[in-house]
Amino acid sequence: MDSITTAASVVAAGLAVGLGAIGPGIGQGSAAQGAVEGIARQPEAEGKIRGTLLLSFAFMESLTIYGLVVALVLLFANPFAG
Amino acid sequence: MASEIVENCSSHDPLLDIDSSDSSSGVKTDEYLELQFRVFRLTCLLTIFSVGIAGFFWGTQASASLLVGALSGIFYFRLLARGVGRLGTSSKIVGKVQLLVPVLLVLGSSRFPQLDLIPALLGFLLYKPALIIQFLSMP
Predict the structure, then answer these.
(1) Chain B residues bordering chain A (beta-carbon distance below 8 Å)
(2) What residue spans define the domains of chain A?
(3) Cβ(B43)–Cβ(B73) under 8 Å?
(4) Which of A1, A81, B38, B66 has its CA 20 to 30 A from that of A34?
(5) Which residue ranges run through the membrane (chain A)?
(6) Helix, strand and coil percent figures for chain A, each rounded to 5
């Protein structure tokens, strides 16, 4: 792998993880805030709120995982390496 | 005065009654555990189905990679569920330890030639159809 490809892959990996984690991070924070407030207001609905939060977190965090996988593939299994 | 205090303490107050509060929180956690178990069961069913199809069409190595990915997906979901379960009680944030699972999966597939990357990633994402089915079947 030549040096330009290596440098571009490293920069792209950083951007993929960094930019890909911004949206899910904000979303997870606001979802957790809403869930904790909801549990504090309605403790009897804790199980349902936690379940919905778990499903939402799993969906949101998969976006981070996509960026992470792209970054790891670029770093360790680069398809552009000659 | 003292007898009045003793009488108040011995009366059935739901806020002071540890057993009753434990049982109600047990019902709530039971609901949460039941959801986790339903997703786990659906993921296992999808895993068995997908591993069978992959083994039939693409061979043993692809199905083994799919199985490893699916197992790591189940482990990831278990870690995420544990983090969400702790939120608000013993922890103020949801941990990010579960993100190590896909990292280790990709690193393992780049290190070991027996583990294919694409089937392993597809197997890892098998928990998502289970989540979608679960989400659609929620009342």
Answers:
(1) 24-25, 27-32, 35-36, 77, 80-81, 84-85, 87-88, 93-94, 98-99, 102-103, 106-107, 109-110, 117, 121, 125, 127-128, 131, 134-135, 138
(2) 1-74
(3) yes
(4) B38
(5) 7-27, 57-77
(6) 90, 0, 10
Q: What is the pLDDT of residues A43-82, one digit of tens each?
A: 888 888 988 999 999 999 899 999 998 998 898 888 887 6
Nearest Cα of chain A lies from the Cα of B88 at a distance, in angstroms, of: 6
For B3-58, give the DSSP string.
Answer: HHHHHHHHS--TTT-HHHHHHHHHHHHHHHHHHHHHHHHHHHHHHHHHHHHHHHHH
Q: What gap in Å lies between CA B99 and CA B103, rounded to an integer?
A: 7
Distances (CA, A) of B42 to A40, B57, B128: 31, 22, 10
Separation CA B119–CA B116 (nearest Å):
6
**pLDDT tens sequence across B20-52:** 444 555 556 688 889 899 999 999 999 999 999
Q: Please answer yes or no on whether B84 and A77 come within 8 Å at the CB atom.
A: no
Determine, for residues B117 and A44 on separate chains, whether the beta-carbon distance falls below 8 Å. no
